[in-house]
DNA sequence: ATGATACGATACGGTATCGTAGCGTTGTAT
DNA sequence: ATACAACGCTACGATACCGTATCGTATCAT
């Protein structure tokens, strides 16, 4: 399936691709970095060219427009989080939220997300990306809750969306609105509250 | 105290101020509008001048720089919310959150806030404004909780900050992250959960 | 070797925006 | 009436950015 040029196919070929891929990779890496520092609005193609060493011309040979590059970089920022399986709902939730709590102050995406949220407020393309990122973050929780329902640990009528909001909301709130620290004690307090009410 | 020019004081005077104030008011009104539409980044002095009818020159006679104007506009956006006093904690919380739930999808500040959050991530001046807005939003809740503690309805050791996050977080989460509707049923479910765990 | 493909460097046109200068006009005070 | 303060208009200079054009160079396939 890799089409290793048998006839006179003067096309892709592994080595050619590797050259292309190196450029794309360098550009995207720098794009990440720049996004983390300045958000969507602080992102300029010229700066990416300067930092990455890849000529602006080359960048425009791979991405038709600035926005396409930004979107590409944002898309690849979506963290695919693992869903743990500890056997109990409380165990799963604790593992998931603790992980997120540790990522919130450090992960690159946490610096870019406000920018995406802001842009998404008025730009459908970014609204779509934001939606995907969002689903990615909520997926492990939803899965854990779904499993708990299947195990009979939760009622089949449980409103999963509400619980997700009740669990994720407080963490996000602290990261971007109240800007208070998110320690394990806080995470436990939130989990305890939500579980107690099920 | 109003200095109505008695001698040869060719200065302030009421009418002069009214002319100045009219300009300032027109500019700020337009600035609000523009902020709501395009966020901090979509905000340009030229556009304010165009829409408000106030010459750009005049704008710069009142605000030294674009940023000063944006900050001024943001500052005045801080909604001073009333703290209801229904007598019971549940009543107060319900009133407060219901109000916020109704404002979140409609109020001007809800369209600008992501932009401020984003800017605040890298700009100390906006971090300060964001902090003030934040405190303003949380104040009624904190007050209601404080009163409940004084009434003995809550333990004196109650962690108010955690409860605020548990209540506000889910609402904010739905507005800017999951983008799900925030109906009264949802608000009640959140309140019920939190109150049940006190 | 030779042609094709990707890349780099430079320059450019076009646009948007900030902030200022010059100068005439309108409103206000005495 | 006259002086003064605030305003409006137009035009700038300066800068930053987008996206393209041009041309020469390096890498790869055959």
From TrEMBL, chains A, B:
Pfam families to which the protein is assigned, alphabetical: TetR_C_11 (PF16859), TetR_N (PF00440)
Region annotated Disordered, chain positions: 1-20
Chain ranges of the HTH tetR-type domain: 21-81
Keyword GTP-binding tagged: no
This protein's record includes keyword Transcription: yes
PROSITE patterns reported for this sequence: HTH_TETR_2 (PS50977)
Known DNA-binding region: 44-63
Highest rank taxon of the organism: Bacteria
UniProt keywords, alphabetically: DNA-binding, Transcription, Transcription regulation
Entry protein name: TetR family transcriptional regulator
Provenance organism: Paenibacillus cookii
């Amino acid at each position: 399936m890799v089409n290793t040029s048998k006839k006179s196919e003067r096309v892709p070929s592994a080595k050619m691709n590797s050259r292309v891929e190196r450029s794309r990779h360098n550009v995207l890496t720098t794009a990440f970095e720049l996004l983390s520092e300045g958000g969507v609005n602080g992102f300029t193609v010229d700066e990416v060219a300067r930092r990455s060493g890849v000529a602006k011309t080359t960048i425009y040979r791979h991405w038709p427009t600035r926005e396409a590059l930004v979107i590409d970089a944002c898309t690849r920022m979506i963290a695919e989080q693992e869903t743990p399986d500890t056997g109990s709902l409380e165990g799963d939730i604790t593992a998931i939220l603790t992980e997120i709590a540790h990522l919130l102050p450090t992960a690159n995406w946490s610096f870019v997300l406000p920018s995406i949220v802001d842009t998404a407020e008025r730009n459908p393309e970014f609204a779509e990306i934001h939606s995907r990122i969002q689903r990615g973050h909520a997926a492990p929780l939803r899965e854990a809750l779904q499993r708990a329902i299947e195990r009979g640990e939760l009622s089949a009528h449980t409103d999963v969306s509400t619980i997700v909001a009740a669990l994720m909301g407080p963490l996000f709130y602290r990261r971007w609105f109240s800007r208070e620290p998110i320690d394990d004690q806080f995470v436990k307090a939130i989990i305890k509250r939500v579980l107690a009410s099920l």
